[in-house]
Write a structure and sequence with these properties.
alpha/beta, 4-stranded antiparallel β-sheet
Length: about 250
């Protein structure tokens, strides 16, 4: 088992992973560099969320290995993996205030020691939520709810962060704000970040690498600049279409 208190930079590898969903057989054989933001793109239903769920432990592969660092975590329960995950819908508890929703990242029972409360307060300050500790999720804007999710990531202090279209429902200004916060958090903690997005300009703005998923397989992977170059992968160019030039300006 990985030491959950360790904060060393770690990579993620899916070693010939096979998985079946309904009639679709998926096969993932890909490595993600440590302390790097990797954008994951591809058509809807291609297997992007499944890939993250396999890494997080919410899905179990038919065969193959999932490595985080040098440790095989394929059989580990989600809670035992050094991973945090942020979804588009946030997964906040509606009856708990901001402070308690963030505190769940330290203790599922919310039995917090003084050091835990200090960590929660610091995370709220860093994500711009100071003064909103007692608000309920329904009293927050979309951007503020995403900040709560990122504050919970900070107090969990896991080296791998998985993001499943977390900013897809936000308007352009709020999305830009959250992307800036993501880059800041990643730079501070040196996390390995896997970021699903349908927005090529968002990928171009924050990621160093990209993985393109098509029909349950990795169609292309590598440095982001190679995707937006003149000789970018054909599958990616077909998918992005006439948005290529606009996104290229962001690289």
């Amino acid at each position: 088992m990985i030491d959950r208190n360790a904060v060393a930079e770690v990579g993620v590898q899916l070693d010939d992973i096979r998985f079946r969903y309904d009639d679709m057989e998926m096969r993932f054989d890909v490595a993600f560099r440590p302390a790097t933001i990797t954008a994951i793109m591809g058509p809807s239903g291609s297997g992007k969320s499944t890939l993250l769920n396999l890494i997080a432990g919410f899905e179990t592969p038919l065969s193959g290995r999932i490595l985080i660092g040098d440790v095989d975590v394929t059989s580990e329960a989600p809670a035992e993996r050094p991973v945090s995950m942020v979804f588009q819908e946030n997964n906040h508890f509606a009856h708990l205030d901001v402070e308690k929703n963030v505190g769940l990242g330290r203790s599922a029972s919310l039995r917090l020691a003084e050091v835990d409360r200090a960590a929660v307060a610091d995370a709220l300050r860093r994500t711009g939520l100071e003064g909103k500790e007692k608000r309920l999720p329904r009293e927050l804007s979309g951007g503020e709810r995403q900040r709560v999710a990122l504050a919970r990531v900070l107090v969990r202090d896991r080296p791998v962060l998985l993001l499943d279209e977390p900013f897809g429902s936000l308007g352009p200004a709020l999305r830009d704000e959250m992307l800036e916060l993501l880059v800041s958090v990643q730079a501070e903690r040196r996390m390995t970040v896997l970021f699903i997005t349908h927005q090529p300009e968002d990928a171009a703005r924050v990621a160093a690498d990209m993985v393109f998923i098509e029909e349950g397989k990795v169609a292309a992977a590598g440095p982001l600049k190679d995707f937006f170059g003149e000789a970018g992968p054909a599958a990616f160019r077909r998918y992005i279409g006439n948005r290529l030039e606009f996104a290229r300006k962001r690289t």
